[in-house]
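Readers of this paper often ask what the protein records in our data store actually look like. The remainder of this section carries one protein's record, kept here as part of the documentation.

:::
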Amino acid sequence: MLLYVITSRALLAGDEEAKRAGLAELAAEWARGGVEYIQVREKDLPLTELQALAARVVEAVRGTGAAAKVLVNGPAQVALDAGADGVHLPAARPGKAAGDSAPLVAQNAALAAEQVYARAGREVIVSAACHSAEEIRQAAGADLLLFSPIFEKTTEPRSARGQGLAALREAVELARPVPVLALGGVTEKNAAACVQAGAAGVAAIRMFLGDGWRGLTDVRPSI
């Protein structure tokens, strides 16, 4: 089972510096524990601070000697300058310009990231968020997809109804051969069901703040 962490320093204790230091420490723990991907998702930060924090996470992960990859939810240049392995793209939305289409916007974003990294002599890993069959088709060019929400999730003051395992199974079939990770309400208790539905792994925020995820590395996809 692939494990994909999405960061949220707001859930950590302490002042701002303590949160950032704690995030770096957690990143090292995740990497040592077998997590394959760590997405730095801190959208409230200015790009210069996002880059600095991402670089801090990259340094922590590299220091473990583990194979975990760090992705940045932000511009490809920021990710590259931070030393990250790639980027995460939000779900595609139609462009503002006349004639723009969502598939073109999504594909251009992936291509742009590839070009930024290629100029530096590096390959980029691209993950993309998807919530529907249409968005899966739009995400052509991504290396892995995060399909959500699978289970009902409540984040005050909003509640998102889960699409369920049947929808996940359909997403996996549609996306082949690109691996799909289940996101949204995923816990150590229901992660195995996602893999049994065909997902290559799971993605989450809160689940990785505890220790329950550590037993998931041995769960294997059924198909």
Observations:
- DSSP finds seven helices and ten strands in the chain.
- Strands lie at 2-6, 37-40, 69-72, 86-89, 125-130, 144-147, 153-155, 158-160, 180-183, 201-204.
- The chain has one domain: 2-218.
- Confidence is low (pLDDT under 50) at residues 94-100.
